[in-house]
From TrEMBL:
SMART domains: HDc. It holds the Pfam family HD. It comes from the Bacteria. This is Transmembrane HD family protein. Coiled coil: none annotated. Keywords: Membrane, Transmembrane, Transmembrane helix. CDD domains: HDc (cd00077). The lineage of its organism: Bacteria, Pseudomonadati, Bacteroidota, Sphingobacteriia, Sphingobacteriales. Residues 484-628 form the HD domain. The chain crosses the membrane at residues 16-35, 272-294, 306-324, 353-376, 397-419, 431-451.
Length: 703
């Protein structure tokens, strides 16, 4: 496994282009394998709408399928037509007749020892019992009573002979008892209460419901229901151009569509469909890779983040394939907006929109009414991206979900007006899938946490948590190095304002600014913003030692951040905020005092690397400008202008921004923003600006 891992790493380094192609092919093949291989019916149609395509002629004979509602109705009718089956149980008859005789003799002797009409009473009772059981006593079934009213038709099986009758032709225990009361009352010489009590005790159903046989007959009836309601012959006109798609025509077209899309497992057409999917998915994902190469090289060459992007895209398309295979009632139940939300919070809005459009375009081939589907999903996805463009509070999640739902509703209403041409005919129950889709989109937030752990990326949610000044590491910085903490806050404000103007991740810049100087906690008194008036500890050190202490705050900061599990994206700000520039104050002081000494210039240089993104580049400029501005004795508009220009031009001369995508236009915007912010901080009034330029005396305040 270790050998394979090393080989893979070597292949990735030596053949980066081939490795990207390999990743792309794997992703394309996985998606194509999962997608359903049925042919796609090329016509779009809706019930009650005009057929906008050429005349549709049947290319072959096919059966017209019943709709699910028709099929359910026919099955119900078939089940209702089945009569419940009952069997005569002769054992019950014999047992109850014998039990009546025994019970009669015992109770008569106990109650009427001197009565002489015993025989007459016995004969009257046994005759009634015989009559009831001969005709049959039934216990009515509640299920059939509700379905077929109180009395219902049934099938009685006696001696393997079946006969149909109505339950009203049989006795129920209550009917038999009523009949016994009327018969006994007619003869005043009979003991009414005595006979009725005994007869009531021996009225047990002998016509028993045969549940197993009844269910078998019902199942056979259901299975015998035809799935079809007629035939369409080859060459028959199904619908003419500009005709309205009526209910009957809709069933014919739908039957043709299903017949067309159903192919054998190993048919040639199935392989051609797979080839078409390979082309469509391949070109779409290739465009995504080209976009990353041209505009997000940092993601293109970061294999973990690239794998995450391809995983998310594949995951959504696999979910769509699953929904199609299980025949989900509506494909709008799927939370398509989860993709742009996750990509936006993990990366940026431009990439999120690009990926969302590509995913929707692929999905449009496999859903009904592809154009309408794309309209719904692209507009909702754009709303999702725009609503969390600047993430400041957790409540924005719910606001975003509400805005997505409103977008769906407005689009649904608009398309319904186009289709129906009426307010009253809109079926709002069809909007239910969109509601569930929006609720499922909220799963994006726990999924983001999982992706962060698995792929080592940092989301805006994590940045928002880290930028909270109550974070333990920031509280420690404020306690140990209060001057540095205040400096970091000001740098955060400057950098955030600048990046917001030129375009970039403002939350990332702010968070990076808050942590960029945490290494100063190791030796806070050696940095001027934390020094008190009691003295400068650099006075007791050589210039080389002082420079190394100043430089060490970068490596110390990286170490502290890693120990506290700060994400790598934030640690990059710590590494790059001085690039590979020199600690000029101590360097110039050394040259002045030891002009002839040979020394290694690297002693006075920061280890780098130089900034490699807009965000890290802006932070470097903001850090240097804010630190230098603290040395201005009498800040005014002219001195601030010159200071900002001098600092920014120095960084450009030192080639510190060559790896960033900051343009010259961006540089001018950044300068103007820094100047405005600094004048606001120092309460400079432009109309009273001083004409003098104040140059800081000790630029070693490196921050």
């Amino acid at each position: 496994m270790i050998i394979n891992s090393k080989l893979l790493r070597l292949f990735r380094v030596k053949h980066a282009g081939l490795y990207h192609i390999f990743m792309l092919l794997i992703c394309v093949l996985v998606v194509v394998i999962i997608l359903p291989k049925e042919k796609r019916f090329k016509f779009e149609f809706e019930k009650g709408k005009v057929w906008m395509h050429p005349d549709l002629i049947s290319p072959f004979n096919f059966a017209i399928e019943k709709s699910s509602r028709e099929l359910e109705s026919d099955k119900k009718e078939a089940v209702d037509a089945v009569l419940p089956v009952y069997r005569f149980d002769n054992k019950v008859t014999a047992i109850e007749q014998e039990a009546f005789r025994i019970d009669f003799d015992f109770k008569w002797k106990a109650r009427f020892q001197e009565k002489t009409n015993r025989a007459k009473n016995f004969k009257a009772g046994i005759d009634l019992i015989d009559e009831f059981y001969k005709k049959g006593i039934i216990q009515l079934n509640n299920h059939y009573q509700k379905r077929k009213n109180a009395d219902y038709y049934l099938t009685i099986v006696q001696n393997n002979v079946a006969a149909s009758t109505n339950s009203s032709a049989l006795y129920t225990p209550s009917r038999a008892l009523d009949q016994a009361r009327m018969a006994v009352q007619k003869d005043k010489s009979l003991e009414f209460s005595f006979l009725i009590d005994i007869i009531q005790d021996h009225l047990q159903p002998n016509v028993i419901f045969d549940e197993g046989l009844t269910q078998k007959l019902e199942q056979e009836a259901v299975e015998s229901v035809s799935l079809y309601r007629g035939m369409v012959q080859k060459g028959e006109l199904i619908v003419a151009q500009k005709d309205v798609v009526t209910e009957d025509v809709y069933k014919k077209i739908e039957s043709l569509r299903k017949e067309y899309e159903q192919t054998g497992l190993f048919s040639g057409s199935r392989r051609i469909v797979a080839l078409g999917q390979l082309i469509v998915v391949g070109i779409t994902l290739s465009l995504l890779m080209i976009f990353l190469f041209l505009f997000r090289k940092d993601l293109y060459y970061d294999y973990r983040q690239l794998s995450l992007i391809l995983f998310i895209v594949s995951g959504m398309l696999i979910t769509l394939s699953w929904a199609i295979k299980v025949e989900l009632p509506s494909l709008y139940y799927i939370p398509y907006c989860i993709v742009p939300i996750i990509i936006r919070l993990l990366f940026d809005a431009r990439l999120a929109l690009n990926i969302h459009i590509l995913v929707v375009l692929i999905a449009g081939f496999f859903v009904p009414n592809g154009f309408e589907f794309a309209f719904y999903q692209i507009t909702a996805g754009m709303t999702a991206i725009y609503s969390i463009q600047t993430l400041l509070r957790r409540s924005q999640y719910l606001v975003s979900a509400f805005l997505i739902l409103m977008t769906y509703f407005i689009c649904f209403a608009g398309t319904s007006f186009i289709h129906e041409g009426s307010f009253v005919q809109i079926d709002f129950i069809n909007f239910a899938p969109f509601v569930l889709s929006v609720l499922l989109s909220l799963l994006a937030y726990p999924m983001i946490y999982l992706f962060e752990k698995l792929f080592g990326v940092t989301s805006d949610i994590t940045l928002m948590e880290l930028s909270n000044t109550n974070n333990p590491l920031l509280r420690e910085l404020a306690f140990k190095a209060p001057g540095t903490f205040q400096h970091s806050m000001q740098v955060a404000n400057l950098a955030e304002a600048a990046i917001y103007k030129i375009g970039g991740n403002a939350l990332l810049v702010r968070t990076g600014a808050l942590y960029h100087d945490i290494g100063k906690m190791r030796a806070p008194n050696y940095f001027i913003e934390n020094q008190k008036k009691t003295g400068n500890p650099h006075d007791e050190l050589t210039y080389e030692e002082s420079a190394q202490i100043i430089i060490r705050h970068v490596t110390d900061g990286v170490e502290i951040a890693q120990k506290n599990h700060i994400p790598e994206t934030i640690i990059d700000f710590i590494r790059t905020h001085h690039g590979n520039t020199r600690v000029d104050y101590f360097y110039q002081s050394f040259l002045k005092n030891f002009p002839d000494r040979i020394f290694d210039e690297q002693i006075f240089r920061y280890p780098g690397p130089i900034p490699f993104s807009k965000e890290t580049g802006v932070l470097m400029l903001a850090d240097s400008v804010e630190a230098a501005s603290r040395a201005l004795k009498d800040p005014d508009a002219r001195s601030i202008d010159n200071l900002v220009d001098k600092i920014v031009n120095y960084k450009l001369d030192q080639q510190q921004l060559v790896n960033t995508d900051i343009t010259l236009k961006d540089i001018e915007t950044i300068k103007q923003m820094f100047k405005q912010m600094l004048m606001s901080i120092y309460h400079v009034r432009v109309e009273y600006q001083s004409m003098g330029v104040k140059i800081p005396e000790k630029p070693f305040v490196e921050s």
